[in-house]
Amino acid sequence: MRAGVLYSDYFSNAVYGGWRKSLLAARRFRDGLLTRIPPDTRVRRRVPKGARSETGIPGVTLERYRVDGREYERFVASWQNADGECQRRRFSVGRYGKEVAEALATAERNKGVETARREKQARQREEAERRLLELPPEPCQVKDPLTRKGIKMPPRPRNGRTTGPNDHLSP
């Protein structure tokens, strides 16, 4: 599922003639799909308690610090790059003013997040295309998936009784 859209298909062993061929078809479907859809950008981490931003903007915080006994403030923009490494950029309130420093930090974070998303998407597509080239050709379906024609069913018993594993116990 990406952006609220579910992408799925069913690869029956009976239709493809065994689990290996159906797995191969499923992998080809996945890799073909990954070349067309955006990457999964959900953040899979828990935010520690008390680490809420004072600015109300995710990834932008107001940081107070001291240098030689003097107190300063700066806005810090943080995001993860395509490799998952934390990136930070700082904007001094003394140099830019509070509103401008906050706007610069917000714009820098949005730019960094968008760059990371584009890089992830490009990597995902390259990886999927590489895997598609390495896979053997797609297996052909041996049976019609809707009618399931060609599936062999066990013969029906003539006397109406079903045969089972405990039939030898009955007289």
Helix % is 25-40%
Give the end-to-end Cα distance, rounded to a whole number of Å: 56 Å
**Helix-strand makeup class:** alpha+beta
Helix-strand string: HHEEEHH
pLDDT averaged residue by residue? 80
* Contiguous uncertain segments of 5+ residues: none
**Main sheet attributes: strand count, strand direction, barrel closure:** 3 strands, antiparallel
Rg from C-alpha positions? 29 Å
User: How many alpha or pi helices?
Assistant: 4
Q: Numbering strands along the chain, what is their spatial order in the largest sheet?
A: 1-2-3
Number of strands: 3
Query: In percent terms, what proportion of residues is strand?
Result: 15-25%
What's the overall geometry?
elongated
Descriptive report:
This protein is α+β, with helices and mostly antiparallel strands and 171 residues long. The model has no long low-confidence stretch (mean pLDDT 80).
